[in-house]
Design a protein that fits this description.
31 helices; alpha/beta; globular; 13-stranded mixed sheet; hydrolase; Rossmann fold; 32 strands; TIM Barrel; Acyl_CoA_acyltransferase; 4 domains; Aminopeptidase; single chain; Glyco_hydro_3_N_sf
Length: 927
């Protein structure tokens, strides 16, 4: 091909007609079960060469074969040199475009197949799946999914991905790819560069973002794509529509970026197949760029096939956009012929007119159906995973008497939509879908039976298998209702089903509530067994050791639920295992390097800790400014009511500290208040070694009731810093902490007190409410204050108040009182230079020498006047700080969303944290 884009000798002269060539570069769909005039027009007059079929098009295997045959006949009669590419999503699990109980078999999701533990089985499943859809005339499968669930707990792909281990994803992805290929179907890996760790930032684009750097992607997310490409068997690659935001790349839509398609996919990874764009009908792209320009950008970026799912007017717009791109010389003929050759090469590998016009259909499907049904049952049985059964409740027919009642509690979940559902469907019919995360999670082009229907049938199957009494009801975001309480009191065993509880938090809350009820009833001598079954993501309660019996099924199709019934009643002994790091976690922890952890010694380690803190401050983001004013002395309270135990990993030769961990114990609560690792020594298990030693020390304390992550006194970390995103939270989650229900704690600041004045009307509102304030010093007048704090806050906050009251010259407590002298709220006031500031880094001036006043730990119980009381306490605190000549005020330890009341007063957010509190039993395996 010359620079003028002359036709290659190996291309049919027919392709000199650019309209025909452009038609081959588009893959389109529609929403009906029959051929419409519009789709016929696209094939006949616009020469569209590829069709995407979704569940909206497909009613049965027989209808699918007839529909595909009709589409191919239209293309043949219209003079298409090669048959149409006919593509479907047929991932199994919850995402299947073609479902037909008589002839098409259901198999587990990608993660379910990995749980079965056999790549050979994954190959067999893929070959069976592809054989079935090929019998109906389909020649391109949009799969396998090659995404690595880097942030496994919170990603919407869920069980559609294999796991969070790139090598495991590669192994199963390549096995599936070979199975598809051996059945004669072309394969398309997805979703490049990765949908496995998306941040839903609530941007104006409503577009999820990849925030990892290219180096980070290369080490994990890109590994399965690289490995699949290296096999030479990957025909196509689906390029996603997500954004990318990192220091080396800023892309709004990956499939429109030459950095992603031409540079990364083709030049770096060496992909020579067909690049297929995400559907350009997505709302964010249409609003920001427009379909015409977007189609041109996709081709310029290196995409060969541009996807437009359903809207006929938008599809015509895309066609005219490509033609306009050629006229404006934005797209050269050479560029079009490059894509054309790739597409025609793929078509040649997976179809011919003889195959396309005569799909075998039902005649073949009826021959292989029984064999595939047996395979389906075998692999579902192999995938069912019992992660824990501490009380030996399985099988149920051995742990329960026939006359005992079994209670089944199932959520009212929505089915996955059959196609990329419109906003009307998502927000009209399913009013709960609000966030960008939810919209993305529910956008799949797949079909699943309604959860309610599946669970109703599951309940009936349970009753039949048990030959005994079974009670079944659903639960919703309304929580535990009286009807649930009555049924729980009656039943001897309760089974709770959850489906993606990490994204549907009401399920997590409901399950925790019921678990607590069962625990209390057991304590009173009643038999109350609890089984939790996660029927989608296995991460719902994977790390929650308080759930003693925990089972995972990886999807909630009828087939999966049938296998679950067999597992519950001992028809087979389930041997599935959780994929990725969950499977390997115990082995990995044992095989990781162990560092010698020693008790902290002030004289020996104090200077090393100061050096470590300074190094961390230099390496940290500006939002971690509190590290700059932290020293070794910050962590030493010498408080008679608080036991301290600090630990270090050190180089005994150079005396350098590689890591430090601070722990405290007071009145039944063990607290991990800080854990630091030298930035140059990370990812070699120093933090894990310190964490294990700290948890062992805390959980062995006599009378331990709770373990807490984060502390206000000393106040270096009130919890996990929110600014660190999910990575740190994930690390603690993998280390045994249940991070699902944190308490948000916020530090706020007025950076310039000289220009600050009270909001208009605030004083008048306080006066009208008859709220009065006074300031007390010393412990002599503090009984009511300390009783108030003891009632409404944790022991470490109580110790903070005691320390403040003892510091009579520089600290005091402001009380808010009602007209009848009852206490409405309290807050600590610190003047600059207080002893307390040494333990609370935001109050320490550091090198600036600016005078900083403190307003600490407001304790305001929930009442109708709570917001006004909080604002009043803050106002009194600011006035006191100004009176002590402070240049700025820091307000520390605001709980949950109470900080919102202070934004209007001129406070800015300084830092936000998430305090985590767990029971000590969570850490039985971790230590």
């Amino acid at each position: 091909m010359t620079s003028q884009g002359q036709l290659d000798a190996d291309l049919d002269p027919l392709w000199q007609d650019l309209d025909r060539a452009i038609g081959q570069m588009l893959i389109m769909g529609w929403d009906e079960t029959e051929v419409t005039p519009q789709i016929r027009h696209l094939i006949e007059d616009h020469h569209i060469g590829s069709i995407l079929l979704t569940a909206k098009n497909l009613k049965s295997a027989q209808q699918t074969a007839k529909l595909v045959q009709e589409l191919q006949t239209i293309a043949h009669q219209a003079g298409h040199p090669q048959p149409l590419l006919i593509a479907v999503d047929q991932e199994n699990g919850g995402v299947n475009s073609l479902f037909d109980e008589e002839f098409i078999c259901q198999f587990p999701s990608s993660m379910g197949q990995a749980a079965a533990g056999s790549p050979e089985l994954a190959y067999t499943i893929a070959k069976a799946t592809a054989t079935e859809i090929a019998a109906c005339g389909v020649n391109l499968i949009l799969g396998p999914v090659l995404d690595v669930l880097t942030n496994a707990r919170y990603q919407p792909l869920g069980v559609r991905a294999t796991s969070d281990d790139p090598q495991e994803v590669s192994q199963y992805g390549i096995a599936a790819m070979k199975g598809y290929k051996d059945a004669g179907v072309a394969v398309c890996g997805k979703h490049f560069p990765s949908y496995g760790n998306l941040d839903f930032l609530g941007s104006s684009l409503d577009m999820p973002i990849i925030t990892q750097t290219l180096e980070e992607l290369s080490l994990s997310a890109l590994v399965p794509f690289r490995n699949a490409i290296a096999t030479g068997g990957l025909d196509a690659m689906f390029v996603g529509g997500c954004g990318i935001a990192n220091p080396s790349m800023n892309v709004n839509h990956a499939c429109l970026s030459d950095q992603v398609v031409d540079d990364l996919l083709r030049n770096e990874l060496g992909f020579k197949g067909v690049a297929i764009s995400e559907c350009l009908e997505m709302e964010a792209l249409r609003n920001e760029i427009g379909v015409k320009a977007g189609t041109v950008m996709a081709v310029e970026a290196g995409c060969d096939l541009v996807l437009l799912c359903r809207a006929y007017d938008v599809q015509l717009e895309a066609i005219s956009g490509l033609k306009l791109g050629v006229e404006n010389e934005l797209i050269t003929k050479g560029r079009i012929y490059t894509s054309l050759k790739r597409i025609l090469r793929m078509k040649k590998s997976c179809t011919s007119w003889a195959q396309a016009l005569n799909p075998p259909g039902i005649s073949l499907l009826s021959q292989i159906h029984l064999e595939h049904l047996a395979l389906s049952r075998r692999v579902y049985d192999s995938s069912i995973t019992v992660m824990r059964d501490n009380e030996k409740l399985l099988p149920l027919n051995q742990s329960m008497d026939k006359d005992e009642e079994l209670l089944l509690l199932t959520p009212l979940v929505k089915p996955l939509p059959a196609s990329s559902a419109t906003k009307t469907i998502l927000e009209g019919k399913n009013g709960n879908v609000q966030t960008a995360h939810d919209k993305w999670a529910h956008r799949d082009r797949g079909a699943m039976m309604s959860g309610e229907g599946v669970f109703r049938e599951f309940g009936k199957s349970m009753a039949r298998a048990r030959h005994g009494k079974l009670l079944h009801t659903s639960y919703t975001a309304n929580g535990v209702r009286p009807v649930h309480e009555n049924l729980i009191h009656r039943a001897s065993c309760i089974i709770i089903v959850t489906a993606d509880a990490n994204r549907n938090l009401y399920q997590a809350g409901f399950t925790k509530h019921v678990a607590m009820m069962c625990s209390l009833l057991r304590a009173s001598g009643q038999k109350k067994s609890l089984i939790v079954v996660a029927v989608s993501s296995p991460y719902d309660f994977a790390m929650d050791k308080s759930i003693g019996t925990y089972i995972c099924t990886f999807d909630f199709t009828e087939t999966a639920m049938s296998a679950l019934v067999r597992a519950l009643f001992g028809v087979f002994n389930p041997h599935g295992s959780l994929p990725g790091t969950l499977r390997k976690s115990k082995k990995v922890i044992k095989s990781r390097q162990h560092w010698l952890v020693e008790n902290y010694n002030r004289d020996r380690d104090g200077r090393g800790l100061d050096d470590l803190l300074q190094g961390l401050a230099r390496a940290s983001a500006p939002s971690h400014s509190y590290l700059q004013t932290s020293t070794a002395r910050t962590f030493e309270l010498f408080n008679p009511s608080t036991e301290e135990a600090h630990f270090v990993v050190r180089n005994s030769s150079t005396h350098a500290l590689y890591g430090f961990c601070a722990t405290y114990y007071t009145k039944g609560i063990g607290i991990l208040a800080a854990i630091f690792v030298d930035p140059a020594k990370r990812n070699v298990s120093i933090g894990r070694s310190l964490h294990r030693r700290a948890l062992r020390s805390l959980t062995q304390r006599r009378g331990i009731k709770k373990v807490q992550l984060g502390m206000c006194f000393p106040g270096v970390y009130l919890g996990i810093p929110v600014d660190d995103g999910n990575k740190l939270k994930e690390w603690f989650g993998r280390s045994g902490w249940d991070t699902q229900f944190p308490k948000r704690l916020t530090n706020m600041v007025i950076p310039d007190l000289s220009g600050w004045s009270a909001p208009e009307g605030l004083l008048q509102s306080i006066q009208r409410a008859s709220i009065c304030f006074d300031l007390i010093h010393g412990l002599d007048n503090a009984e009511s204050v300390l009783n108030h704090v003891a009632t409404h806050a944790n022991p470490e906050v109580y110790e903070l108040y005691k320390a403040a009251l003892q510091e009579t010259k520089t600290c005091g407590v402001v009380r808010a009182k009602s007209p009848v002298d009852s206490l409405l709220g309290t807050v600590i006031i610190c003047s600059p230079g207080s002893h307390l500031a040494g333990h609370i880094p935001p109050l320490h001036p550091g090198r600036t020498n600016a005078l900083i006043g403190g307003i600490l730990a407001p304790i305001v119980p929930s009442t109708a006047q709570a917001n006004l009381v909080l604002q009043g306490l803050a106002l009194m605190g600011v006035r006191q700080n100004k009176a002590h000549k402070s240049a700025k005020s820091v307000l520390s330890w605001l709980q949950d969303d109470s900080y919102e009341q202070l934004l209007a007063m001129g406070f800015d957010i300084l830092q936000s944290f998430e305090e985590i509190t767990n029971g000590p039993e969570n850490f039985v395996d971790a230590v």
